[in-house]
Amino acid sequence: MHLKDILSKVSPSIFALIIICFFLPFTTVSCQNAKIATLSGFQVATGADVEQTSGLASSLGNMKELQDLSKEVSKAANVEVPKPKAQKIKGNPIAGVVLAMAFAGIAMSFVAIRQKAMIEAAIAGVGAVMMFILKLTIDGEITKQGGGMFQVDYEIGYWLTMILFIGAIGVNGYRYWLGMQDS
Q1: What angle do CA 109, 95, 41 make, to 5 degrees?
Q2: What pLDDT digit, counting tens, does each position of 12-30 carry?
Q3: Predicted confidence (pLDDT) at residue 59 exceeds the cutoff of 50
Q4: Residue 4: is it exposed, middle or buried by C-beta count within 10 angstroms (0-12/13-18/19+)?
Q5: What transmembrane ranges does the database entry give (predicted)?
Q6: Assigned architecture for domain 3-50+90-182
Q7: What is the pLDDT of residues 119-170, one digit of tens each?
Q8: Most buried by CB count within 10 Å: which residue of 73, 78, 82, 141?
């Protein structure tokens, strides 16, 4: 089996791994080092309901004990403690495009055309550029919404997706180059 044949099997695997990375934590939003929400790639792409908690509750970590304590205090003081509100976060269309690029990369494995490696490299290139644009968009949106109070940390899912897109560019670019050498 030639190297070119092996690489043609690796390419769809890379795109499949990108889709799997969308299940991993993608972003974490925090306020003054207190985690507010962690979103997976699919949640960034499609939207999610996020429970708002106070910074104190988030930093304490064990919500069950804090809620029990809060109920006891509110009963003793005869005061109603408001429950955390769920906030709807809209899906980001750029994350949807990134996900579509990963599916397009897998779909290309079923197509038999001569320039397949170049097209797969281009798909991966668009995916990598869109990942960078996604980061800029999220950073800008969080800064605008929170007035600089919120911080976004990019988690393992985001970085693995970026690395895998860059790897797909390399693998498919090399496959294309090998094909040109054979001609």
Answers
A1: 90
A2: 999 999 999 999 999 999 9
A3: no
A4: middle
A5: 6-26, 93-113, 119-138, 158-177
A6: Up-down Bundle (1.20)
A7: 999 999 999 999 999 999 999 988 888 888 889 999 999 999 999 999 999 9
A8: 141
Alpha-carbon span 95 to 133, nearest angstrom: 9
Angle between helices 3-21 and 116-146 (to 10 degrees): 20
Q: How far apart are CA 154 and CA 44, in angstroms?
A: 12
* Both structure tokens of 28: 């974490």
